[in-house]
Design brief:
- By secondary structure, the chain is of the alpha+beta class.
- The protein is about 30% helix and about 25% strand.
- A hairpin with an 8-residue loop joins β2 and β3.
């Protein structure tokens, strides 16, 4: 898809889908490096950087934070021209990588992702930021692929409140039937990329299948974005305390 059309769709809908963003060779390398990272690096990571559906069962690994800080391969991927150029096109200028994550919705036990806007977590002004979601396999409604509400990024921030979902502690509190009717179910194949604006409303079903739903996520801010550091630190502190109290980390 040409750059002009990509930018138009992103600005209008609040998200885009890029098929075969990675070549077969690039995808194979990413899958192998991810497996190595999970096997060799994850056991030594801080507990707040790794989430499990069951913290006593390593096979239920569901999320890893800041891959780029712990693995040189992932840092290189996040700074590769094809990733950076797309982020800069969509955000309209130079960008800063803020997080790189691993996700897996575990077969049959992977929980629903509550409807939310990523920007609520970011504590930034203005909301010129995006999330990239790079699929490592097949994703659809049955195994928990994301749904988007087109154009929702244009209406500002919705109210959010605490959820009990590990890794997604905040969810929209005024969700309605109108929102449900507006949702678009996305699908993705291995190496496909979904990108959404920080204010785009999205959620995902639980994984009702016997298939994993694995992906790598990138979060980029426009370089001019200002972070409310006090609010961000307080949120992270409160989140960690709640997770410890609930026995989830």
């Amino acid at each position: 898809m040409e750059a002009k059309k990509i930018k138009y769709l992103y600005d209008n809908n609040g998200y885009i889908a890029e098929k075969k963003f990675l070549t077969e060779i690039e995808l194979s390398e990413l899958i192998n490096e991810t497996k190595r990272f999970v096997k060799d690096i994850v056991p030594n990571l801080p507990r707040e950087a790794v989430f499990y559906e069951n913290k006593n069962d390593p096979s239920t690994l569901k999320q890893i934070q800041h891959l780029d800080q712990y693995g040189s391969y992932f840092k290189k991927l996040a700074s590769s021209p094809k990733v950076i150029e797309l982020a800069e096109l969509l955000l309209g200028g130079k960008v800063v990588l803020k997080n790189m994550q691993y996700f897996d919705k575990i077969p049959l036990i992977g929980k629903e992702t509550p409807a939310h806007q990523d920007g609520y977590y970011f504590k930034i002004k203005p909301q010129i930021a995006l999330t990239m979601w790079l699929s490592l396999g097949d994703a659809d409604g049955e195994n928990g692929a994301v749904t988007y509400i087109p154009g929702s990024h244009k209406a500002g921030m919705r109210p959010h409140g605490n959820t009990e979902v590990l890794g997604f502690s905040q969810g929209i509190t005024d969700w309605s039937e109108k929102d449900s009717a507006a949702e678009i179910q996305m699908t993705a194949g291995p190496g496909d990329l979904l990108v959404h604006h920080s204010l785009t409303i999205h959620r995902a079903n639980p994984n009702r299948s016997n298939r994993h739903r694995k992906s790598i996520g990138f979060i980029f801010y426009h370089e001019d974005v200002v972070v409310n550091e006090e609010a961000h630190v307080n949120y992270q502190k409160e989140l960690k305390q709640n997770l410890e109290k609930q026995g989830k980390i």
